[in-house]
Design brief:
- β30 and β31 form a beta hairpin.
- Helices cover about 0% and strands about 45% of the residues.
- The relative contact order is 0.12.
- The protein contains no helices and 38 strands.
- The chain has a domain of about 110 residues.
- The protein is mainly beta and about 300 residues long.
- The strands form 13 sheets. Strands 10-11-14-15 form a four-stranded antiparallel β-sheet, with no helix packed on it.
């Protein structure tokens, strides 16, 4: 399978190592030929140039996910512009089909920080309390026709979503899920919410599944009663450390070819120099090249290109 990697947001700039699809907070940037692209842009690896997606959005994009040739974006925007100049008034989430932007029902009533697509559904998490005009506390599911709540939802913002079969894991800054105590991370099994033991002691900003294990990264220093330096893993029944951690906040992670990549505010993960990006495989971790000069906020992969 051919793959392309999303770019990292590096101190307000888009940068990447491999054919990225980027959709992170970006005011305006000049693409190939000097064109202006607003908040979302795609890299063509064959032509080695950036391309706009229509005329972009009117404000920040925080999350991207793909299904086939469709790109879903979520963020702080309320309006999008198609290539022909037509306007789409969509609240905080939209779909790009390769030619035009389309709406997802009536959208959401607050910022979207995380989205994750399956073959049939799209999950969105953020700071919203309504989806499609109906109550949906900080997380909702788009079934292709309408928005659905996930039970009673969460009592605080969702910043990360990971899917494992029928289970949907969410992370963020909350303390209850479906009315039950759940510290910053919880699981939805399609019917009900459940906590993952006691959970982290602070904000979870990124979740990734790798080889059947859930990895959580963020601003926490403990999980349950165990010290965990901003990253931990869940095997379905208990938490454990990931090496000696990263030493400071993790803002983004992605799994690729059996390895876990992370971006954030750290400089010495596992006691080894690494400027804001790190690769981990098994029990070992190390920097990615020479790292980057600022925090990495987002990274991901999609099918499509090498």
């Amino acid at each position: 399978m051919r793959r392309a990697c999303f770019a990292l947001l590096l101190s307000g700039m888009i940068a990447s190592a491999e054919t990225p699809l980027a959709g992170r907070p970006l005011a305006q940037a000049r693409g190939g030929g000097g064109m202006i692209v607003n908040h979302v842009v795609i890299w063509d690896g064959a032509e080695e140039r950036w391309h706009p997606l229509g005329l972009g959005t009117d404000d920040k994009v925080f999350a991207t996910s793909t299904r086939g040739s469709d790109l879903f974006i979520g963020g702080w925007f309320k309006n999008l512009s198609n290539p022909d100049g037509s306007q789409l008034k969509e609240s905080f989430i939209a779909r790009w089909d390769g030619k035009t932007w389309t709406e997802l029902g009536d959208g959401l009533n607050g910022i979207v920080y995380a989205i994750a697509a399956t073959d049939t559904d799209l999950y969105a998490g953020g700071a919203f309390t309504k989806a499609g005009g109906q109550p949906a506390n900080h997380v909702a599911r788009w079934d292709g026709e309408k928005w659905q709540p996930l039970g009673a939802g969460l009592n605080g913002s969702v910043y990360a979503i990971a899917i494992d079969g029928n289970d949907v894991y969410v992370g963020g800054y909350f303390f209850r899920a479906g009315g039950l105590p759940a510290n910053h991370i919880a699981k939805w099994d399609g019917t009900r919410w459940s906590p993952l033991s006691v959970g982290p002691n602070n904000w979870v900003h990124s979740l990734v599944m790798l080889d059947g294990t859930l990895y959580a990264g963020g601003m926490f220093t403990k999980v349950d009663t165990m010290d965990a330096s901003y990253i931990a893993k869940w095997n379905g029944s208990r938490w454990s450390r990931v090496g000696s951690g990263t030493g400071y906040w993790i803002m983004a992670m992605v799994a690729h070819k059996g390895a876990l990549y992370a971006g954030g505010y750290f400089t010495s993960p596992g006691g080894k120099p690494a400027r804001c990006t790190v690769q981990g495989g098994g029990k070992q971790g190390g920097g990615v090249g020479g790292g980057v000069g600022g925090p990495g906020y987002g990274t991901g992969c999609r099918p499509g290109q090498p």
